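During the practical work, I worked with a single protein chain and the tokens that describe its fold, as given directly below.
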Amino acid sequence: MPLLPFAKCDVPAPPTTCEFLFDTGRRLLDIALAGLTPYLPPSEADDTFDTYVSMGPPVAEFYDALSIHLVSFGAPPARRAPASSNTGVWPVQVAEWDMRLWENVYPVPRSAGEGVIAVPPPAEYQAVNRHVYAHGTAIHNALTTAQVTNTLALPHWVDKVTIGPLKPISAALGESGAVGWKIEVATEGHG
């Protein structure tokens, strides 16, 4: 019997304390989305902006999306073995997260006829990048502000959060360019 409800994807998972990783990723994603929301244009029939907790780096170079995925989870390596204990106290567990914002239809060079390539003018890049930079700053500021104001509201197992720097990312340029941002987040706690 498969573990995933393939036939009925609307079936909720049973309530359990094992959902803390998903809940942590979802909450981080919600905070970042709240910062980005003022920049989202009104939705059109065929336009979508997706947000989701992923199982790995998203293949989002074809649509606009904000996602987060777990890179690793477990006790950090130690120089010596942990002391044995019969108290049942778990060692600190670290979850490393990778949040990505992808934006598409970035200006790219295009064919302008036989052997001629038309490169977008610098003014076009300047105008587009003004928005792209604002979007990245918005999600990073939302996470940082929530951390500083103690409003992250993460699951109770999380004792510490480290928000990494904002890093630009880009996909291979083709017919439609894709650029965006990456933020690495680490959460620590006693799972």
